[in-house]
Amino acid sequence: MIDSIIAEGDIVILSLEPRRTYMVKVEAGKTFHTHKGYVKLDELVGKDFGSTFQSSLGAMFTALRPTLSDYIMKSSRNTQITYPKDAALIVMFSSIGPGSRVVESGTGTGALTTALAHYVKPNGKVYTYELREEFQKNAEKNLKRSNLLDFVELKSGDVTMGIEEREVDAVVLDLATPWLVIPHAYEALKPSGTLVSFSPTIDQVVKATEALRENDFILIDTIECIMRAMQVERGKTRPQTLMTGHTGYITYARKALKPIKKEKEAASAKEDVPPIV
Amino acid sequence: MIDSIIAEGDIVILSLEPRRTYMVKVEAGKTFHTHKGYVKLDELVGKDFGSTFQSSLGAMFTALRPTLSDYIMKSSRNTQITYPKDAALIVMFSSIGPGSRVVESGTGTGALTTALAHYVKPNGKVYTYELREEFQKNAEKNLKRSNLLDFVELKSGDVTMGIEEREVDAVVLDLATPWLVIPHAYEALKPSGTLVSFSPTIDQVVKATEALRENDFILIDTIECIMRAMQVERGKTRPQTLMTGHTGYITYARKALKPIKKEKEAASAKEDVPPIV
Amino acid sequence: MIDSIIAEGDIVILSLEPRRTYMVKVEAGKTFHTHKGYVKLDELVGKDFGSTFQSSLGAMFTALRPTLSDYIMKSSRNTQITYPKDAALIVMFSSIGPGSRVVESGTGTGALTTALAHYVKPNGKVYTYELREEFQKNAEKNLKRSNLLDFVELKSGDVTMGIEEREVDAVVLDLATPWLVIPHAYEALKPSGTLVSFSPTIDQVVKATEALRENDFILIDTIECIMRAMQVERGKTRPQTLMTGHTGYITYARKALKPIKKEKEAASAKEDVPPIV
Amino acid sequence: MIDSIIAEGDIVILSLEPRRTYMVKVEAGKTFHTHKGYVKLDELVGKDFGSTFQSSLGAMFTALRPTLSDYIMKSSRNTQITYPKDAALIVMFSSIGPGSRVVESGTGTGALTTALAHYVKPNGKVYTYELREEFQKNAEKNLKRSNLLDFVELKSGDVTMGIEEREVDAVVLDLATPWLVIPHAYEALKPSGTLVSFSPTIDQVVKATEALRENDFILIDTIECIMRAMQVERGKTRPQTLMTGHTGYITYARKALKPIKKEKEAASAKEDVPPIV
After folding, report:
1. What DSSP letter does each residue of D204-230 carry, written as one string?
2. Is a pLDDT exceeding 80 seen at residue A270?
3. Contact A14/A62 with Cβ under 8 angstroms?
4. ipTM value of the model?
5. φ, ψ for residue B8 (rounded to 5)?
6. Residue A224 or residue D3, greater confidence
7. Mean per-residue pLDDT, B203-232
8. Which end of chain A has less neighbouring CB within 10 Å, N or C?
9. Is the pLDDT of residue B15 over 70?
């Protein structure tokens, strides 16, 4: 199979066990340097993905095709990225998939944009807004590298002033003031469409939730995913000592058509309903 | 837009705030009964998704298009389902997307199959193996309801004896003895392909990890996602009292080509590498 | 040893494996009824703690001396109790021990009072304030049952108006508006004394923290303990499916003498210091 | 009050906001150096605990009396310490208190010994076993510094060969092979006494649990406390980014008298009982 052979220009993950990975572009005449010696990238061309190469110091590197998670983690960064675990849940709770039209803001590093674009292809589109030009340029570079730029429209407007798109399937917010965008998100969304907002602080969650309630969104929920890694070794298995304790909260909701006549239900009533799983 | 109108035969989520939802098929002459009164399903036809309807007892139900998460949670069940949070991470770490060819085993309720099929369409395929005929039939029903059956091939072989497919992008395991399938998964996968295994117990994780190490998989990691919901109300915000403490561990890995000459690195060396995020 | 023999009047835990426990008072002529049959309490008298008795339906009950945790969990309740995990951390971060003089408010069920009294005996004292008389009476009953009433002074004043004690070692707050009590707690505490506040909501934590900062408390931190139980069985070990996701946050601090000239340090500076463990 | 004045020879915590602390012994003529300048320790003598001092570089240090948690965290270490959160839960689940007689093994740094001794004083005793002489000496130093040595008997025997004490209230295990000690712990304990074992790995938990079941212990449970710190700042409140993901599991149980005729109850039956809180 032709696409299982490494070609010049390919983006490749060089893996050094256990768990160290480097993302490189295969270019003629180049060498890639690590603390375990260098690898001549010419040697990779024509070999199978999955092959193992020896560095100048004898370390064994395996050349892998990058996964979506690799593209996210290896994003060129000028700000915080959205981690794969959060990107995964944002994608799930936005219910996007192939063909979806999605508005995102802000673009940031483009890490989340990469995830969204990965799933809406081949016939969907991500409209992503970013105010800072240098962020946009960096995101464009990341998207080009992951070969997903065709499924993304990079826009430079200010979403707190309005969203141009209409009848989109989902709006994904990852910016400091989601509550200012929620009225515009309502206008942009199809009825029954989904909104997902990602925020590190509780105060952002409270304000976003209030804006969602005021703007005829329903089924509003907030979750966080505490991801813990395991060290697996027979007789010594245990959770890893250090972990990321918090990245952010994910708030999601559905657009209902106005007017909704809501029944008054106390917040405490929430305790009566089944827990979110 | 034609597809934003509810038609006879549509699958609809009826939402009753806060957070109670029912999945119904819109059929002429039928009524849907809840503890808050009944809704005549005829009334929904021709209305917009997102519209709100009054039940016989005055409760307001909003009719929504089902999300992927709704289809998963409302699966007809004859065994445990894979929850959306886990399905999301399995999809992320398998790196599948539109066009991917994926082997899954076992089919179970088809909840995870639904997620996989949702993301591989329009031109990918999920080959899903299940030994128990009644499970397969139930999964077929769930997949038909979510309109994803075209992207799935339901198979009844025993994957511990072998996998028929070759050059697949990913193998997803959710069965009692993943370690017995891992050698076959190696054969089925493209070089550099991904394997993801979901298991509730630590013993399964240890055995699967050992089998992965013995079968030339690399970048083997295990994580769990502890999902916690928030009760959001200005002045009263707090994590929810009850939560699901555990569903399962997600182990993932990449196929390297044989032979890999591994450097011996103690398990303790793992502490040196950056934590998984 | 005389105190290892069950006597009339003793409080006993009847344990039915796995993990079902009942707290009973051994009274002549009484029987204790469960869904697994009844036990005649007379039979217990004169037997050793740790002995096993057969119920009328053949179930085996073991008679144990109650632990502190048993007394907490079996408190007669008219409001939420403080769970053992939180009581343990409150005791640790308040740094109390034998001989400590502690102010507590509110008394509530007396569950936390029980823990505090358990540790300050034989020569310390817990001064516990409660406004609602029925709560106080119930707490008194719980403390009498656990034989700790001698180490507690039940008080009925309103601590938001002031605390009578002076030079106490610790102030422990478990009430709706801790921030109103913090200035009085400052007056009551010895210099270098500890304050611990337990609150279910984040808003309470923020207000308490602000009040602590304004009232010359230092080393202010907030933590929560997410306790997860394991199901342990060779080959099937895993975290328990259901868990308590949240009980409350524990905020603790130390009293410094006025005036403290604080260096201005941005909240972001907190990231520089070692994480709390 | 005399004991609120800093005297020569006192152990003092010097606190530099936010959250940096140093433990020093006040000695005439000594200076204490930090990256924020030095403090002349002579200046502290005769001042109140809680007072604030300026360093040579103008940083403000507050002098506090050490808490139990300070003594634990500032232990002179030659091995891993038991963190305050775990020490707190071990103390709670062992149900020890003033007057208790406790066997501990191994002594290690003496951090957990410090916590145990703090709570059993003034008339209880901790018998702590350690094989490595240098550990024992270091622990002795830590216990002397925290003024708790009178309540501890440092022993050098091998507890896997036997425990000398009898009729103790609790046995606390923090060693690599708890299962080898459990039969001896049974002999040492009072009927109805408590055993608590702390272990980092799941395999240790499984083996300890099996040994407990075989040795007539009942009410056997295992929990872990995942402690998460909050960054509290109005408008920016959030869980801390980095956290300790795992320290260890706490297994606890009660001694029943032999023979117990156990009803056979499947592990799955555990699901029927209320979750541990």
Report:
1. HHHHHHHHHHHTTEEEEEEEEEEEEEE
2. no
3. yes
4. 0.93
5. -60, 140
6. A224
7. 97
8. N
9. yes
Out of A118, A121, A267, the one facing B236 most closely (by C-beta) is A267
Reference C249, options B124, D228, A102; nearest CA is D228
Beta-carbon contacts of residue B134 (< 8 Å; ≥ 6 apart): B78
Query: What does the alpha-carbon distance between residue C205 and residue C250 come to, in Å, rounded to a whole number?
Result: 8
CB D17 within 8 A of CB D5: no
Q: How many alpha carbons lie under 13 Å from residue C247 in its C-beta half-sphere? A: 25
What whole-number distance in Å separates Cα of residue D236 and Cα of residue A201? 6
Residue among A89, A228, A83 nearest B226 (CA): A228
Cβ proximity of C200 and C248 under 8 Å? yes
Q: Rounded to an integer, what distance in angstroms lies between the CA atom of residue C95 and that of residue B216?
A: 53
Phi, psi of C102 (to 5 degrees): -130, 135
Cβ–Cβ pairs < 8 A, chains A and D: 61
Give backbone dihedrals phi and psi of B140, rounded to 5 degrees, phi first. Answer: -60, -40
Per-residue pLDDT band for B268 (boundaries 50, 70, 90) equals: very low
pLDDT digits (tens, 9 = 90+) for C182-194: 999 999 999 999 9
- Which class for C180: exposed (0-12), middle (13-18), buried (19 or more C-beta within 10 A)? middle
Q: What are the structural domains, with CATH classification, of chain A?
A: 2-66 (3.10.330.20), 70-258 (3.40.50.150)
Q: What is the dihedral of CA C50, C53, C59, C64, to 10 degrees?
A: -30
Please name the member of A203, A236, A238 whose beta carbon is closest to the beta carbon of D237: A203
Note every long-range contact of D158-162, with CB atoms under 8 Å and residues 24 or more positions apart, other chains counting: D158/D129, D158/D131, D159/D103, D159/D105, D159/D106, D159/D129, D159/D184, D160/D184, D162/D187
Tokens at D248, concatenated: 């260890």
pTM summary value = 0.93
**Inter-residue contact A277 to A250 (CB < 8 Å):** no
Specify whether the CB–CB gap between D197 and D221 falls below 8 A.
Answer: no
Report helix angle C111-120 to C133-145, nearest 10. Answer: 50
Distance CA C99, CA B59 (A): 60
Tell me which amino acid residue C266 is.
Answer: A
Using a CB–CB cut-off of 8 Å, the residues of A that contact D are 200-203, 228-229, 234-247
SS3 label, residue B119: helix
C264: pLDDT strictly greater than 60:
no
Q: Would you say residue A100 has pLDDT above 70?
A: yes
| Whole-number pLDDT of residue B4 | 85
| pLDDT in the model for residue D18 | 74
Q: Which residues of B touch A243 (CB under 8 A)?
A: 275
Structure tokens given for C231: 């199901």
> Residue D256: what pLDDT?
96
Other CB atoms within 10 Å distance of the CB of residue D177? 15
Return the pLDDT at C275: 52
- Alpha-carbon span A247 to A88, nearest angstrom: 13
* C152-166, C226-240, C263-277, D206-220: range with lowest mean pLDDT: C263-277
End-to-end Cα distance, chain D: 41
* Residue A109 Cα, gap to closest chain C Cα (Å): 22
Q: What is the mean pLDDT of chain B?
A: 92
Where are the extended beta strands (E) located within A232-271?
Answer: 238-239, 242-244, 249-255
Shortest distance, CA C214 to any CA of chain A (angstroms): 21
Facing residue for C245 by CB, picked from B200, B235, B240: B240
Closest CA relative to residue B260, chosen from C215, C171, A53 = A53
Instruction: Give the containing element (helix H, strand E) for D101.
Output: strand D101-105
Looking at residue C78, what is its pLDDT? Answer: 87
Residues in chain D closer than 8 A to B275 (CB atoms): 245
DSSP code of residue C175: S
